[in-house]
Structure formats: C-alpha cells, structure tokens
Write a structure and sequence with these properties.
heterodimer, A: 596 residues, alpha+beta, seven-stranded antiparallel sheet, five-stranded antiparallel sheet, 14 helices, globular, B: 677 residues, Nucleotidyltransferase, domain 5, Rossmann fold, 5 domains, nine-stranded mixed sheet, six-stranded mixed sheet
Chain lengths: 596, 677
C-alpha cells in the first residue's frame, strides 16, 4: 500500500483542493493541446483516425498529463523526450527552441510519427516541456502511401535525430526547406508541423499560467503529490493482482518479406507492487518492417498496466514507476539501427500476447482474446472522370473476448485504437468505385463457451471500377484463445473473388488458400493489387474467444443466439451440444449430446 | 374574453416549472410542482393549477418535456423493428465500432443494450447507388413479409425503415412505408428520410430507431395533455420545444418526436438569447447550474451553437441539437477523497436523499452543504422559507467525511470543494469556447438554474469573464425562455459535389425545394408570409476532409462567393486555408415562423433597495470570511448599484458576488455582475 494514501494530510502545507486543481488544470491543458492540434492539422489521419499523442512534463521531464488519440500512444512521447534531451543536451535548449525527432530507435515509433517537443520557460526559468506526436503523410520513403516491405530504415524517409526546427521562437527556414524538398506532399506536412507547434505553444502557455497563478513552488509540490498518487494507485492496483510469472507466445503471419511466422513472446512477472515484462524469447529482428523500437515496447507495457490498474484516471509519470521491461537489443521488440520499423505491427499484435500471458494468472480479470487485428482495406487510385487521386480505407471492428460474467461484445475496434471508427458505406461509395454487397456480423465467428466470444464482421467490397486495393492484416494464420474450455473465435481472413488472370495483377503477401476448401476463391492476409469491376474483396474480421465450457452454456442462451442468428443450428449442436428444432430446444437430444 | 396570457411548462427531473406572462399587464407569475414520473400529465396539470390561471385566457402553451429521453434512459419505449437492405441488417449493431473517450482503456467494456435485437432486424431486396439511382428494384413482397413477421412474430409496436442512400432518393423508403401501413395499419412508423436527408447509414438508422422507439409513448402523452388542457377551456396553440432551437406544433412533434428528445435545456438557451438581444449582448455563455449537472452552451451572434451529430446513451442522432456541454457538477455533487486528492462529483446526491442539510437522509457532503458552511445560504430562507436546512448536520458531515481525513478545517475543505468544482466547470467551458477559437473573455455569462447565481460569478472570475447576467426568476428561467420560442423547422439534403463542379441552377433548385417544403409547413400552421423567414446554410469542407463547417448560404451573388465564405470560415475555425478544392456536402434550410411573444417592459426606478442584514461568508476575492451585505431581490430598483461582497436572496435561489465585483440592476430588473477580472 502506498504511504501517501495512508496519510492524506500533506507535510508541505499543500491542501488537497490545490493539488486537485493543479491536476485538473494540467489535464485540461493537455486536452486543449489536443484540440489545437486536431483543429489546425492538415491531414485527415490526424483528425479522423486520431493518430497523435500530446503530453505535458515538468522541468525534470516527468509526465504530468497527456491526451493520446490512439490508446497505444500512451506515454510514447516520454521516451522520445528523454532521448531527445540526451542527444541535444538540456543545457543547449533556450526559450523558444522547438525540436523535431523521428529517428525510430529514439522516437518510440516509425519515421512518420513525428515527435515535436519544446522546453517551457517562465521568466527564463525552465518550468517544463510540452510534446506532441502526430502522423505525417510523407517524408520521402521508398513508396508513396504505406510501405509494407522495407528492409532498412533508409527506405523509410527523412530522419531527424532531435533537430531544432525553431530557434529562439523563430522557425529555421533551412530545416523547413529540407522537409519540403524531401516530401511528396510538402504543403500538408508543413501544415501539420505548424499544427503541432501550435499545440505545443498552447500547452506551454497554459503551463505558464498555472505557474503564474500559484507560483512554481506550489505547482511543483502539487506535481510531486500527483505523481506520488499515480504511483500509489498503480501499486495498489498491482498489489490487488496475483503474484506470479506467466508467459505466452503468438505469431505474426510473416514479416512482409519472407513467409515464415514471426513469434512474439512475452513473460510477465508480478511481484507485489511491481510488474516486469520480458520479451527475450521473441523473434530476432525481422528482415521486413515489423520491428518495434524500445520506446514503443514500453508504450505497450504502459498501456497494459493502465488498463489493469487505472483505466479511467488521467495518466502521469507515477503510473509507470512500478513497471519495467527487458527486450534484448536486436530482437523484434528492441530494434536497432538500421532495422526496418515501418509497420510496427508487432506492437499492435504484441499487446494481445501480453494479455494472453496475464490471463493465465488472472483469468477473472482478463477477457479471452479479441479477434486480434485491425483489419484494414484501402482503395487508392485516380478517378478517371475528375483526374483526382483518392485514398479511402476502413478498419473494422473485431469480436472481443468473453469474460467470467458475460459474452464478448461484437465488432469493436482493437484495444490499441479504441477511438477509431469504421467508414460508413454511404461515405465510402461516394468516394471510391465500390458498391458493398453486405456488412454483417459473421455467424459462428464468436468462440464458443459458457460465455460466447463476440462476433467479427464481414464487409464485401464489390468493385464498380478499376482500382488498387491493399489489405493490411497480420494475423490470419494463427487462432486467438479462449479460457477454461472456451474456444478461440474465427480467424481474420480476406477472401478474394477475382478473375482467372489475377496473378498478373495481385500480389499475395500472405496466401492461406490451401487451408480452405477449393471453391475458386483466394483466402489471404496481407495483399495488394490492381482490381477490376465486379471483382469482390471480402474483409472478414476475427471473433473473440469464449470463456468456460460451451456445454455449460444454458441451452436457453444458445437458443436465443440461434434465434438472433449469432450461432447457427449446426454450431449449436456441434459446439454447444444443444439440439434445436426450429425455435425450440429438443431437451432429450440435448441431454444425450451433452452426456456423450 | 381576452386571451392575453402566454403559458409555458417545463418538466425537469425534480420539479415542473410553470410560467405565465400576461401581455396586457406585463405581469409574470411562476410556480413549481413536483415531477410525477408515473403520470407526467399530473405534474403538468398541478403546476398549471398553482398559477391560478384560467386556461381560456391563454393564447399559447409551450411545453418542454423529458418524456422521450426518459423512455430511452429507462428502456421503456416501444418494441421496435428495423427494415433495411438485404445484407445490411447488422449496420445498426455494428455501428462505428469505436468506444467513447472515457472508456478508451476499458478492456472489459461492454456495449449498451441495443434498442432493437437482431431478430427484429430484417433485410429486404432493393438497392440504390450513391447518386440515388436504382440498382435493384425494391422487393415489395419481402417488405410485406417483414412487416407482418415483425408484428405477428415479434409483437412490434413500431417499425423504423432505413435504406442505403435514401438521403438521395427516398422512393424505396416511401414505398416501403405505404406497404407497411397497408399491411400492419396499427404500427407506428418512422422513415429515416422523413427525419433527415443526410448520409451515414448507421447514424440515420439510429435516429429513425430512436424516433420509432419513443413515438407511441409520445403520441399518447401529447394527446392526453392536449385533451386535458382543452377540457379546461384552452383554445390556443399548443407547442413543444425542439432539441435544436425553437418549438414546433404539438401535431408536428408527434410526426417525428425525436426532435424533442433533448429539448430539456432548450428553453434556457432561447431565453438567454432573447435577454441578450434586449440588453445588447450578442455573445453569451449560458450556464445552467442545477442540482446534478452543469449545462453550458455558447451563444454567438445571438444564436446558440447547434450541432448535427450527437448521441444519447452512445446512440447517435442525426438531428440538430443545441451544442451543450454537460458535466456532473451541481448543488448536489458529492465531495470525496481519492487518496490524497479531493474530488467533487460526478456522483450527485440528487433530490433524494439530497444534500446532508436537507435532512432527508443524505450522508455525503455536497456543494450545497459546502455553500452553507461558507455562509452563502441562509438555512431559514431556503425555498422562501418553505424548507428548513440543517446547517449543523451539514458541517458535521463535512468534518467527519473530509476535514478530519485531510487534517483541515471545515471552512478550508468547503472552499476546496468549491475550488475543485470550479476547476471542472472552467475546464468544460474552456473546451466549448477555446475549441472553436473563441476567447471566453469576449463573452457575457448568463447564470440560471438553482445554483447558477451563486456559482457562475465565481466561474466568471476564473475565466476572466467580466460580466455575468442574472435574469429574473433564474431558477425557472428555462420555462420562461420557452415563452420566447419561435416555431422552427429544419430541412437538409446531402448534396456532395466539389464546388467547381456544382451547377448553380441545380444548387438553387435543391435549395428551393427544401424552402418550399418549409414554407408550406409554416403556411399550413397559419404563419402569414411576413412572419416567415428562411435561413440557408451549406455544409462544406476541403476534398478529403471528413468534418464540415457550416457556411451561411444567404444572398449569394454566385458560387465563387460561397467559396470565399467557406475559406473565411475555415480560416477562423482552423487557422488556415488549404489548396485542396472546396466541396459541398449538405444543404440546410431553417424555416422560422415568428410567434406572438411577450415583450419585456422597462421597470421604473422607485427608490433603491436597502440591505436587510449582514452575513458572514467566504469572500473568494479576499480569500477570507467577511461580512456580506444581504439584499432581497424584490426590493431592488432599476439603476441601483450594489458593491460586493453581497448576497441577494430570492425565493428559489441565492445570488452571491464577491468583493472585487459590483452588481447593477438594469431597466428590466436583470442583475449585471461586473468586475472580478
């Protein structure tokens, strides 16, 4: 138990209300930074997909408040800020300086997630830092759009190791020019840079306001309390969990370059109020761009700890004190220069592996697996009528896992990007040459169990014009997991109904067709190609895992699922041992099936 | 017989407020009765009876009701089914797949219960493309079978119909509606295209479902209330307030009751705009600080901010609603400890058990208890003396629950509770102003609701807002505002085209069509031409963006001018313009029928009210307990100036301002609190 919660009266004369007011102020400042960024950003990925993270620090670079857009960007700036300060040297930062950093191994992200940070001064005194991270559209990587198969960092775009883009409040035009000449979309990239600078300036101004209002001594003392509170709530949260060591492994379909499964392995140890993550058993660095820089691996761990201990509190440095991790240099979760890191996919799927390990020790707290991926389909080409380029993509929800007390919810975005929305059919059909044949829940995709896993979805894109299609799915070959006899949900898969000459046009990066019935369709994971009218791309997302023995599910609940079509009559019989005739249960036959 | 009275009745969670204004005498009367959830009509009738008004004397009756939202919150609406396109029956369940922000780290999140389970969602053949062209004809037999099954098999009382791209072409929906009416005549029907002509199938479906879900209950209620008041001799016009501004006739309200679902706070905003207009303040922040929540809305250039995408219980609605920020901070908000942090709300003691000082069994210290401890309230004068407050219990509750734990005095903790609640409120208001590029210091705040006049002057000090307006009868201001409603209808049409490809004739034709619908509606309701007005808006964005900005579309010389207006609007809202081509997304028209409203008469100054006493209370400006002059509001006279610190009592609320603030009574009896910046 943390000492501070035992002795609420503070010894430095600060009252509880002042601490809370300072905390609230910092949190609302981070939120305001976020609003400034989304209000002024030029690229839709920032304000539609929330691909950003904002944070505020004290003068010792301790996180005081943050406002992530993607859940997984939690604390991602912390690592970048420290590495950036190490590189430049704190003593070399003057008021009005603003620093650009996207060197992947220091930045906790790939080259396009650019971190911009600045010291905040009040009357020449350093009082903190403000940082913002946002996804830029192009920095001159080898391919426009998205790179799926880079083999080293230098194919991934222009890199800044911690470079002053503003000096003493004035932009360095030479740096801006360098960016402009190295980007395929210079105006938007420069626009986004300015949006990030505006966000930082907003945060800095608010930080100065609170220091002026209460005085730095009071604010800093309040921050000590806030961080101590964060640490103690996390420790209490960890204390409440079982002690032990658990491990799990799961796989990426391949690395985008070769065709072997890529193992992601983690061992988690909870010891009292401390948690440790060890990624040593994971694959070595891959040839393709699945690798994760260490800062991002930290973010994965921070994310998991937050969901376990403080899901609804605002975040600060204290939350991460009881957390540490080990990932040997040169492995999947600690990429070294010049390993390619462009897709960072192992960090998305790796989160599920951590839960898989934890579920072994605390099954009542951890739902069974989700469908496990973000299931994205992208259409891009040039509209022949107007000559305009379009890029339209939609991610899909997956089934979430069942718990010890309820079925898993259907069709929700993956844990790491819970605020992202799918794209409406009517919007998509207005923008790209496609007419959807269906958008439905996938019957029988939820893992069977006493509590059933949530269902994945099926969205069928029927093309009505020529266009390029890309699927970004990295978990189509291995199943998720249930608990206590619950079955895994259906796997993710993309099904292609294409003309016979597809091979000249479509590249299958992960081909699973052999595993499926020979019905003339292609069953794939990642792929890209040029498609024709009337060809169909069917995106099917995975289901959540079940919890408990399916034969223990009350037959009436199975009947309800059959009436709603979540479960077929056949699956009711084979997986749940419940015989259903029309809309009634054949009790005798059910007993026979379940006793067998 | 004269019908000179205007009547308004507002149902809240705890009280029904009734207000009547006599146009001839200029007199305003207000009353409160208890809300009667089991039979809402009873509470309304009680509140009217307390006014002692002969309903034959009333020319208009404006009513704001929470019936729709309550049916939703309590899941007591109609058994509803959905008919949509084949292959798409799960659109309603899949939704947009995201979690709301405060659940973003909740791996055990579960979706709220759906209003329509999968078994009651039917897909039928038929398909339009994005231009509205028919790709596959409607399968009429399938519609017939689905309607029959929904009623026969699943006992549906209401059916919502939503087909893909019906915002472009409503033929399939209309035909399906005809078939459903023929096949199952008793069922209540909501067609998505009759409620909104905008794209995004999930949001449109959800809107139609919400409408269908509340429609039977709403119809019954309006009919019953209408019968009741007519029996009592009422022979005037009966209006219901809308979620997005103005009111509509009770009859129109029953055709699409979803438009009334968030009408609760609407009256206050209409009232605030009205008062602002009279005293020459166009930019206001209206703050309704009640028992459980604080509702704030920005009024810019005289018009409350409206949004077109909102949600209730995570169920989206595609109708215009006032853009109101609500947080759980009110008189009943509970102070509690999270380790060594002092928190206030969002839990509230509500009306039952209420704050400790009510003596109804409340044991958790609330803001109201803290207000007593700080001296802002007179325990003997609450609700005009109708209710005694137990100050000792309040103080001892604060002491044992908070002060002892924190090692602080009762006064310190009470002040701390105010500080924390203020920080929450200030954060919320910064979001609705700064977010839109607005500086709160350019605004006047309007304080109403039971706790508003005590709390808002403090909020203003924190935000640097130099002026707070306290209207007459602030605790029933929402009902009063309803008297000022115009009749408003909105029509919109999704029309997606890059601006340079827009054909001006086509653009005009589409707008004219919408306007004709509105003019016809208003004429049918008896509005003469000179009392009708129309406002055009164009929702626009840069190609590739998703979010739009609303651009005034009135008096355009040509489409180039529309482009210029868009760029100016984008620049002011986002701080920049872009090189991408501008794109038109939706056309909107608002049709307004001007009603016969009460006018405010200037009061005559006859002597200035003198203090009736002194109270020892906490002065936030000086940071210490000090003596506040105490006034009775009824005795104040126009033109009078009161130096802070002072407390002004009125029967249902207390106005407090501090030593760096001064209040002036204007010609209409409003209190304008200034300074503190």
């Amino acid at each position: 138990m943390g000492d501070l919660t035992m002795s609420p009266a503070t010894d430095d004369g600060l009252d509880a209300a002042t601490i809370e007011v300072v905390r609230n102020y910092m949190t609302s400042a981070a939120t305001e930074m976020q609003r400034t960024l989304t209000r002024t950003a030029y690229n839709t990925i920032i304000y539609e997909i929330f691909d950003f993270g904002l944070s505020l620090y004290d003068a010792e670079a301790r996180l005081v408040a943050d406002a992530p857009g993607l859940s997984l960007f939690l604390g991602g700036n912390d690592y970048a800020l420290r590495k950036g300060l190490e590189h430049i040297g704190e003593e070399n930062l003057d008021p009005g300086d603003i620093v650009l950093l996207n060197y992947p191994y220091w930045n906790a992200a790939h080259t396009l997630d650019v971190c911009i940070f600045a010291p905040v001064h009040l009357d020449d005194e350093l009082i903190g830092y403000a940082a913002s991270r946002a996804h830029w559209l192009d920095l001159g990587a080898k391919d426009a759009g998205y790179v799926l198969d880079s083999t080293d960092m230098h194919q991934e775009g222009l890199v800044f190791p911690g470079t002053k883009v503003y000096k003493g409040g004035e932009p360095d035009e030479e740096i801006l020019e360098l960016i402009r000449f190295n980007s395929r979309i210079p105006d938007k990239v420069i626009g986004d840079l300015h949006a990030q600078v505006a966000a930082i300036q907003t945060g800095g101004e608010r930080l100065r306001e609170i220091h002026r209002k209460y005085g730095s001594a009071t604010v800093n003392a309040a921050i000590d309390h806030i961080i101590a509170h964060g640490e103690s709530t996390t420790k209490e949260g960890l204390e409440a969990l079982s002690d032990g060591t658990w491990s799990a492994v799961d796989y990426l379909d391949n690395d985008g370059v070769s065709d072997d499964l890529v193992p992601m392995a983690v061992e988690v140890t909870i010891d009292g109020d401390h948690i440790h993550f060890d990624f040593s058993e994971s694959a070595d660095e891959t040839d393709g761009p699945m690798n994760v820089p260490l800062g991002r691996t930290q973010a994965m761990c921070k994310f998991v700890v937050k969901t376990l201990t403080n899901p609804s509190r605002t975040t600060n440095e204290g939350h991460y004190r009881p957390v540490d991790l080990h990932a040997p240099e040169g492995t999947l979760f600690n990429a070294r220069y010049p390993a390619p890191t462009y897709t960072l996919w192992a960090s998305t799927l790796g989160v599920d592996v951590i839960y898989k390990a934890l579920a072994k020790g605390m099954p009542a707290l951890i739902p069974s697996s989700t469908g496990g991926d973000i299931n994205s389909i992208m259409l891009h080409s040039t509209d022949p009528a107007s000559g305009r380029r379009y890029v339209e993509a939609s991610n899909e929800g997956v089934g979430w896992g069942a718990t010890d007390e309820r079925d898993g919810p259907n069709a929700l975005m993956h844990y790491v990007q819970t605020m992202v929305r799918n794209i409406p059919l009517e919007v998509f059909e207005n923008k790209a040459p496609v007419r959807f044949d269906r958008l439905e829940l996938r019957q029988d995709s939820g893992g069977a169990g006493r509590y059933r896993g949530g269902l994945g979805i099926r969205r069928d894109y029927r093309l009505v014009g020529e266009t390029n299609v890309l699927s970004i799915n990295k978990k189509t070959r291995t199943p998720g997991w249930g608990q206590f006899g619950g079955a895994p949900g259906a796997k993710n898969v993309v099904v292609l109904d294409v003309d016979d000459d597809w091979q000249a046009r479509v590249q299958l990066i992960a081909d699973n067709t052999d595993e499926h019935p020979d019905d003339g369709l292609l069953y794939v994971g990642m792929m890209r190609g040029a498609f024709r009218p009337d060809e169909v791309v069917s995106n099917r997302s995975g289901g959540g895992g079940g919890y408990g023995d399916p034969f223990a599910r009350p037959p009436d609940a199975v009947l309800e699922d059959v009436i709603d079509g979540y479960v077929s009559i056949e699956a009711a019989r084979t997986e749940y041992g419940v015989a259903i005739d029309g809309t009634t249960i054949d009790r005798e036959e059910t007993d026979r099936l379940r006793d067998a | 017989m004269t019908s000179s009275h205007h009547l308004a009745v507002d149902i809240g969670g705890t009280f029904v407020d009734s207000v009547t204004f006599d146009r001839e005498s200029g007199e305003l009367a207000v009353e409160k009765a208890s809300t009667t959830p089991a039979d809402p009509t009873a509470g309304v009738v009680n509140a009217i009876e307390k006014l002692g008004l002969d309903l034959a004397d009333a020319s208009s009756f404006v009513h704001g009701t929470t019936l729709g939202i309550n049916a939703l919150l309590e899941r007591e609406g109609a058994r509803t089914g959905i008919i949509t396109n084949e292959g798409f029956r799960d659109i309603y369940e899949i939704g947009r797949t995201n979690l709301k922000r405060d659940s973003m780290y909740d791996i055990r999140y579960n979706k709220p219960e759906l209003l329509v389970p999968r078994r009651r969602r039917y897909g039928v053949g038929g398909r339009l493309d994005a231009k509205g062209n028919e790709v596959e004809p409607l399968d009429e037999d399938a519609v017939r079978d689905a309607a029959r099954e929904l009623v026969d098999e699943w006992d549906c009382e209401a059916i919502a119909v939503c087909f893909l791209h019906s915002y472009q072409n409503d033929e399939h929906e209309r035909r399906a509606g005809e078939i459903i009416r023929e096949e199952v005549p008793g069922v209540s029907l909501s067609l998505s295209s009759e409620i909104t002509r905008e794209y995004r199938e999930y949001e449109r479906t959800s809107t139609a479902v919400l409408d269908a879900y509340i429609k039977p209950i709403f119809d019954n209620y309006v009919e019953q209330l209408d019968d009741t008041v007519r029996d009592e001799g009422f022979d005037g016009s009966f209006f219901i307030t809308r979620s997005g501004g103005g009111a509509l006739t009770a009859e129109s309200a029953t055709t699409a009751p979803v438009h009334t679902i968030l009408s609760g706070p609407a009256g206050g905003l209409i009232g605030a705009s009205f008062v602002g207009d009279i005293i020459g303040r166009e930019n206001l922040i209206a703050v309704d600080f009640g028992g459980t929540s604080m509702d704030a809305c920005v009024i810019e250039d005289g018009a409350p901010a409206v949004e077109y995408e909102s949600a209730l219980e995570e169920l989206p609605m595609m109708i215009p609603v006032f853009d109101i920020r609500t947080i759980g901070a009110g008189g009943g908000s509970i102070g509690w400890l999270d380790g060594n942090l002092l928190k206030v709300g969002p839990q509230s003691a509500g009306a039952d058990p209420g704050p400790i000082c009510y003596g109804h069994g409340g044991s958790e210290p609330t803001i109201t208890d803290a207000a007593l401890a700080l001296g802002f309230m007179d325990p003997d004068q609450f609700l005009g003396g109708e209710m005694d407050l137990d100050a000792d219990a309040a103080l001892s509750g604060i002491e044992t629950k908070l002060a002892d734990e924190l090692g602080q005095s009762i006064e310190e903790v009470s002040r701390g509770m105010f500080d924390v609640a203020l920080a929450n409120t200030v954060g919320a208001i910064r979001e609705i102003t700064v977010e839109k590029g607005l500086d709160p210091r350019d605004f006047t705040m309007v304080a109403y609701g039971g706790a508003g006049p005590m709390f808002v002057p403090l909020v203003a000090r924190e935000l640097g807002v130099g002026e707070v307006l306290v209207p007459q009868a602030p605790s029933v201001f929402s009902a009063w505002g309803m008297l000022m409603s115009d009749i408003v209808y909105d029509e919109s049409q999704t029309y997606i085209s890059v601006l340079e490809d827009v054909d001006h004739d086509e653009f005009e034709r589409r707008f004219t069509e919408l306007e004709e619908e509105l003019t016809e509606q208003l004429s049918v309701e008896g509005f003469a031409d000179e009392t009708q007005s129309l406002e055009r808006y164009v929702e626009m964005r840069y190609l590739g963006q998703e979010h739009t900005v609303s651009v005034p579309g009135q008096d355009l010389a040509d489409l180039d001018e529309l482009g210029e207006r868009f760029e100016a609007k984008h620049e002011s809202r986002y701080g920049h313009t872009m090189d991408d081509p501008p794109q038109v997304v939706h056309l909107r028209v608002r049709g307004i029928g001007e009603t016969d409203k009460p006018t405010l008469e200037k009061a005559t100054a006859d002597g200035a009210g003198e203090p009736v006493g002194v109270r020892n209370a906490y002065d936030f400006a000086a940071g210490e307990m000090t003596d506040f002059d105490v006034y009775k509001r009824g005795s104040l006279a126009a033109g009078q100036t009161i130096e802070g610190p002072a407390i002004v009592f009125e029967p249902t609320t207390t106005i407090v301002f501090h030593s760096d603030q001064t209040a002036e009574v204007d010609d209409y009896g409003h209190l304008l609190i200034q300074g503190g910046v």
